[in-house]
Amino acid sequence: MLFRCGLQAVDALVQTAKIMGLGQIAIVVVCIALLSAGTAALWTVSRERRRQRTLTGIMDAADAMEDLLRRTRDKMGAMQSMVGRVPADISADARASLDSDERVQAGFRDLLQHRMWLQHNGQTASQQSLDQAAAALQRARARIAAELERLDNAGAELDSATGPAIAAAGREPSTLRRGGT
Asked: Using CA of residue 67, residue 73, residue 75, residue 77, what is the dihedral sign?
């Protein structure tokens, strides 16, 4: 099929040459060559721009991820002081969750690995590999953002639950308080 189309194009060119003359054919051939070269150049520039946009997007996503991890770590620290207002026997599980910031540290390590991979392979990686790296960062960022939102919600619930109890406890005689304090 392709061979037949090529023969038809050559035949059309020969017929045009007979009608138009050789000078005009040369102009048509030069125009077709310039059009082909221009198309190839535009395709190359477009591909390079897409690659650059992907690399920039990955770097921006990594920066946003780092910011999110820092905010999560800070929020966990703030939650520790809030949980500290609750009696230890009630808040033991919450304290254990907030004390282990292994998941945050693991996030920082993963982020560092992404950045190191990008530094070593960014210029030579295929577009598909870059797209996969960008998607992985976005998925990780979405998971951490959801965790941070749950942490914010838990903090608000804890604050609304403990605020009135703490105020009421301040009005009670110390002999009725937990632990006798």
From this structure: negative
Predicted TM-score (pTM) of this structure = 0.62
As a whole number of angstroms, the distance between CA 136 and CA 140 comes to 6
CA distance linking residue 77 with residue 65, whole number of Å: 18
How many domains does the chain divide into? 1
Average pLDDT over residues 45-56: 88
CB 49 within 8 A of CB 128: no
What letter represents residue 10's amino acid?
A: V
Indicate whether 116 belongs to any domain.
yes
Residue 144 has pLDDT above 80, yes or no: yes
Distance separating alpha carbons of residues 72 and 23, to the nearest angstrom: 73
| Length of the chain measured in residues | 181
Query: Which domain range does residue 143 map to?
Result: 51-169
pLDDT (mean) for 36-48: 82
Is residue 80 exposed (0-12), middle (13-18) or buried (19+ Cβ within 10 Å)? middle
**Which pair of tokens denotes residue 132?**
């996969």
Inside any domain, residue 180:
no
Residue at 106: amino acid letter: A
Residue 63 scores a pLDDT above 90? yes
Query: Is residue 16 in a domain?
Result: no
Q: Is residue 26 situated within a structural domain?
A: no
Six token digits for residue 141: 């960022």
HSE of 48, CA atoms in CB hemisphere, 13 A = 6
